[in-house]
Amino acid sequence: MRAITVPEPGGPDALVWAEVPDPEPGPGEVVIDVRASAVNRADLLQRQGNYPPPPGAPAYPGLECSGVIGAVGSEVTGWRVGDQVCALLAGGGYAERVAVPAGQLLPVPAGVDLVDAAALPEVACTVWSNVVDLARLAEGETLLVHGGGSGIGTFAIQLGRTLGATVLATARAAKHGPLRELGAAHTIDYTTTDFVEEVKRVTDGQGADVILDIIGGKYLGPNVAALATGGRLVVIGMQGGRKGELDLGALLAKRGTVAATALRSRPLDQKAAITRGVREQVWPLVEAGSVRPIVDRRVPLREAAQAHRVVEASDHLGKVLLVNEAA
Ligand SMILES: NC(=O)c1ccc[n+]([C@@H]2O[C@H](COP(=O)([O-])OP(=O)(O)OC[C@H]3O[C@@H](n4cnc5c(N)ncnc54)[C@H](OP(=O)(O)O)[C@@H]3O)[C@@H](O)[C@H]2O)c1
Q: With 0-12 CB in 10 A as exposed, 13-18 as middle and 19+ as buried, what is 84?
């Protein structure tokens, strides 16, 4: 088969379309004939040599895909050759075929196109596991989503609104209109506005009950300041650095919680549990049309370098898909 390989770390042109060995399904795995994959910000880090795949994962980038099951390994029940699926991957999605543990498979939701389904697994599993399973966002609460225009952000806004939360989102001003349409009650231009003051202003001084953060160190202090009493801050990205100062006095006065998680390196049983939770709790919302894949554009898989340039410049809103045109 062919895949996007990274012979030497570097810029977008480090991505090379090349012949590689076909994957075989191990026990408990299936092989998917990939129809589409999607770019995640972590893929940019992997390309630069800063985010190696976890042990046992395919060497090629790609944390999710959609496609058709082409082979089923031993000990797999409930899935058959020919099933249309999408999947959470530890790597290897930028390829014509990929082997994946069956616990990370999801059916393509009714009403969603097979290509667009590649936009869902990573954001659905990340957002649901952090905002719902961990932070327990409840109806009537306020959710602050940093990077509202990202793949993660566009999904979190829709899920938060559908669960009955008031959603606030930070993004550059050009992205505000679409984010309001997705369900953000207030959008904050982080380039011109102090988000802490703005969150306080629109919540009558209360703050946000849950914050989904992708910035990390630089936002740690401000995020704690923006939390409501009993608030939960979940950090899933470090785009603003890995170190920050935590004012424990401010946190304990609010009885607040700070958590941080990474999905890719979690053990298989945890990924399978998250995938099950998404299938049970999120897929019905997708099938009802309340939460949908937000696709900025489709790029041919062999032109992954072009897709990486778009995401690196943050010129996109939602997800950039990589389509295997040979499928
Ligand atoms: N821990 C996990 O398990 C996990 C899983 C998936 C993703 N993530 C993380 O989640 C983040 C989003 O991933 P993605 O693939 O969806 O990313 P993406 O689509 O590439 O989006 C990145 C976003 O960052 C925003 N941004 C940059 N600086 C900002 C700032 N100072 N304040 C607010 N927003 C800012 C950009 O918004 P503007 O264009 O508006 O500037 C852009 O929308 C990444 O950091 C990724 O590593 C973590």
A: middle
What tens digit of pLDDT does each residue of 246-263 get? Answer: 999 999 999 999 999 999
Q: 238, 260, 282: which is the final residue of a domain? A: 260
**What is the percent of the chain with per-residue pLDDT over 90, rounded to a whole number?**
97
**Are 312 and 231 within one domain?**
no
Based on the fold, state whether residues 135 and 83 are members of the same structural domain. Answer: no
Number of domains the chain is built from: 2
In the chain, the percentage of residues whose pLDDT exceeds 70 is 100
- 220, 240 contact by CB (below 8 A): no
CATH (domain of 189): 3.40.50.720
Among protein residues, the one with the nearest Cα to ligand 1's atom 45 is: 237
- Tell me: the pLDDT tens digits for 264-297? 999 999 999 999 999 999 999 999 999 999 999 9
Tell me if 41 CB under 6 Å of ligand 1. yes
- 314 CA to centre of ligand 1 in angstroms: 9
Among 260, 281, 301, identify where a domain stops.
260
Beta carbon of 150 within 6 Å of any ligand 1 atom: yes
In the numeric block, the tokens 């990929």 are attached to 98
CA of residue 152 to ligand 1 center, whole Å: 7
CA distance 197 to 215: 18
Judge if the beta carbon of residue 152 lies within 6 A of ligand 1. Answer: yes
**3-class DSSP state of 314:** coil
Same domain, yes or no: 289 and 213: no
